[in-house]
Amino acid sequence: MAQAIFRHWDQDELNKQVSARATVPDIAPFMQDYAQHSQRCRDLLTCKSDVPYGSSEAERLDIFPASKPGSPIFVFIHGGYWRMLDARDSSFMAQTFVEAGCAVVAINYALAPSVSIAEITRQCRAALAFIAKSAAMMNGDASRIHVCGSSAGGHLAGMMIARGWAVQYGLDEGFIQSASILSGLMDLEPVRLSYCNEWVQLDAQGAYALSPIHHLPAAPLPLVVAYGSNETTEFLRQSEIYAAACAAIGCNVSIKNEPQSNHFDLPLRLMSPQSPLTRAVLSAMGL
Predict the structure, then answer these.
(1) Which contiguous run of DSSP H or E holds residue 276?
(2) Which CATH code is given to the segment(s) 62-284?
(3) What is the pTM for the complete model shown?
(4) Per-residue model confidence as pLDDT tens digits over 107-158
(5) Which residue, among 139, 131, 109, 233, has the nearest Cα to 176 in the 3D structure?
(6) Residue ranges per domain, the chain?
């Protein structure tokens, strides 16, 4: 009998549980959709591309200003297991949210394994601080920031609403008004124990320090937690334990199990103004 590595799973099963791409025949069509729809939004809308928020080439934003000053800001952090994708692939929802009255910002960050997960987290926090302090340039309201992330981006979104970092950037604790986590990796211990550690390169202490499940929001906030209907048991567990922990500290949590969706097409639901996911996110934003 094979040795249990995490929960009751041996190494092979754990590797399957944390492999999102194994749940679909091919991820390439979804990657193409992200890129093509994002390009369409950049062509259609006013977009300030490659706005720097830090000193490295990777630290940049694509910004879609709102049509009116004082608008809420929707910030998207892409997934890709911290080692794939780019802000240029990550604004496919911009038309929907700009037309709903928001500014939209897609965050870019350096990719693993060239940088650590801790450095990626730092970069995204620096980006959020830049967005808050530069809200006026996108017709945004710094008190109405919503951060959304998918998969590894869901993990990063969780680390953005975690307590204990905002003061380093001269911001108030809990400055992010609301959030949405799509298929997020909120507990990095099984990731560390899986094949993914080839590029995330975490030890037990690092996995704990960078797991949103151990670093909950600084203050209760509206929170959407969503996952696709064909996610693995472990991805479902990650969403459910985080939603429960946030609800226990007073967050207003909306859980969306999107039917007939998978890990990769779930974020594309944000392109439709009428999808249950989009409606839940807009409700969390007060729209």
Answers:
(1) helix 276-284
(2) 3.40.50.1820
(3) 0.98
(4) 999 999 999 999 999 999 999 999 999 999 999 999 999 999 999 999 999 9
(5) 131
(6) 62-284
